[in-house]
Amino acid sequence: MSPVFPMLTVLTMFYYMCLRRRARTATRGEIMNSHRTVESNSRTSPLNAEVVQYAKEVVDFSSHYGSENSMSYTMWNLAGVPNVFPSSGDFTQTAVFRTYGTWWDQCPSAPVPFKRTPANFQSQDYVELAFEQQVYPTAVHVLETYHPGAVIRILACSANPYSPGPPAEVRWETLWSEKPTKVNASQARQFKPCIKQINFPTNLIRLEINSSLLDYYTELDAVVLHGMKDKPMLSLKTSLIDMNDLDEDDYEEKDDCEIDNLNKKFSSTALREGPSNGYFDKLPYELIQLILNHLTLPDLCRLAQTCKLLNQHCCDPLQYIHLNLQPYWAKLNDTSLEFLQARCTLVQWLNLSWTGNRGFISVAGFSRFLKVCGSELVRLELSCSHFLNETCLEIISEMCPNLQDLNLSSCDKLPPQAFSHIAKLCGLKRLVLYRTKVEQTALLSILNFCSDLQHLSLGSCVMIEDYDVTASMIGAKCKKLRTLDLWRCKNITESGIAELASGCPLLEELDLGWCPTLQSSTGCFARLAHQLPNLQKLFLTANRSVCDTDIEELASNCTRLRQLDILGTRMDITLQIIHFPTHFLIEV
Questions:
Q1: Helix (H) or strand (E) holding 172
Q2: How far apart are CA 152 and CA 122, in angstroms?
Q3: Cβ of 121: how many Cβ atoms within 10 Å?
Q4: Which helix (H) or strand (E) holds 364?
Q5: What region holds the F-box domain (predicted)?
């Protein structure tokens, strides 16, 4: 045989090994370059022209800085052509999320994080955008006009939001993701990440946000979707690069597979007989349980397949006392909850935020799960869970007698009458109703029966008619209250503030941002400073009347104050004369 062929074989093997080594050790930037090669090598016929379109409408989001009855700083500004770009700066015509930085996680109202949250899941907010035409995406451009760098994940959905009937299957695919990174410049930019190709057309794009590294609110102006009407064909060279990139440890795809196959992963009948369980037979049961406490849910799924001993440990209800299912929102459905039921009989903390939308979880499936697993629940997170209806809240009130912590943030599709069932949860200590349609009658009933409340969020609750009456009831019934969010309450006056301050002396956090009816001339802010000495966080955002006297009173009386927001005041505040505590954050 000619020596040429062995030489070619050796060179081919060497080249293949180099490619695999590159795939394992490449930096994120190199991997992105390989995806760029994929994009540049896609072949389309001349008739398959690229479609470029702006978002037609905003279909869902987790939070925004603006009001529900306005367009300023709201997510709805992301629909249509740019309003501001390429200009830089703070503009009301842009989309702005509610938070930024890390100090939101350090204030008294911040909830304790869930254990076993995958390190790769760092999303804090999201917005979903619908486009006119379904295309195979080739690029997604985000026009950022102020403090860019918050977008960490872009996803596409197979469901068409404009389809008249329900889709046969709803599938989410990640187009691009990255860990939060610091962007030093605050100027406008057109963010153009290199996305991967998917095998279905889409007109529903989701941006996920992490603002923890930002120095100020990020502002987004528009999103542009580029794509082909027909599926692009990839060259052989492109396929080779994609195959090598599969060596990257993609947590999301693997974890999604695990959630899809919970039944198989946890089924003991799928285990093969083995001669022994290794050295695990020699370890105490409690020690193995302690070791497994450090695993995420998908890791437990994988480990359950190894042997019967570890399968027994992985299915032990003690492993599911704290269960965070939010990272798996894109795959979690009724079947997943059914397979988890037997293992969650002792669950105390349950996070179902962002889950169940577009038919993934039904009212019947949620009800069945709570009837089996709700008796020990202490904390239930349901932020942006749009499958919820009145029946669900009734089931929660009946099946969760020990519930102390309920988060319904941005559940804006819940009907007003549904909230009356919360009054049956007399042991509540934390209640989040941000951006919900709770009405005054139901809220007063809740305040009357839930007198142990320590944390209450009523931000952007536009259906409450009289905030003075609400504040008076809070002061009369909620003597243990430590934090209160009244962000953008439309009609509270100095009378309500007086009742609140006299009745809730333990308050450590008070958000009165964008409350236009409060006037410094009435002495309401000075009264707060005198009657609430434990204040650590106070928001008076956009109150045009705040003056030097108010700041001096706060500095003299509220010695524990760490966060003060007086952004938007029209007065010239002389901060130099004030002696604030160390580690103090002030926005002006």
A1: strand 172-177
A2: 8
A3: 17
A4: helix 363-373
A5: 277-332
Which amino acid is it at 213? L
Do the beta carbons of residue 531 and residue 510 sit within 8 Å? Answer: no
| Whether residue 385 has pLDDT greater than 50 | yes
Give the integer Cα–Cα distance in Å for 420 and 432: 15
User: Rounded to the nearest 10 degrees, what angle do helices 494-503 and 524-531 cross at?
Assistant: 0
R_g (Cα) of the chain, nearest Å: 27
Distance CA 186, CA 145 (A): 8
Q: Determine contact, residues 347/320, Cβ cutoff 8 Å.
A: yes
Q: What pLDDT sits at residue 247?
A: 40
Q: Strands 219-228 and 95-96, how do they pair?
A: antiparallel
Residues with Cβ within 8 Å of 544's Cβ and at least 6 positions away in sequence, in order, are 568, 569, 570, 571
Angstrom distances, CA of residue 345 to CA of 370, 371, 428: 9, 10, 21
Burial degree of 577 (CB within 10 A; 0-12, 13-18, 19+) = exposed
Q: Which residues of 438-463 are buried (b: 16+ CB within 10 A; e: fewer)?
A: bbbebbbbbbeebeebbbbbbbbbbe
Q: What local confidence, expressed as pLDDT, does residue 1 receive?
A: 46
Q: Which residues pair with 135 in a beta bridge?
A: 202
pLDDT per residue as tens digits for the range 325-371: 999 999 999 999 999 999 999 999 999 999 999 999 999 999 999 99
Nearest residue to 256 (alpha-carbon basis) of 156, 173, 159: 173
d(CA 588, CA 415): 38
What token pair was written down for 133?
A: 């035409």
Q: From CA 460, how far away is CA 515, in angstroms rounded?
A: 11
**Kind of pairing, strands 483-485 and 349-351?**
unpaired
Cite the beta strand spans of 366-438 per DSSP E.
Answer: 379-381, 405-407, 430-432
- State the first-to-last Cα distance of the chain, in angstroms, to the nearest integer: 82
Nearest to 205, CA basis, from 185, 225, 187, 191:
225
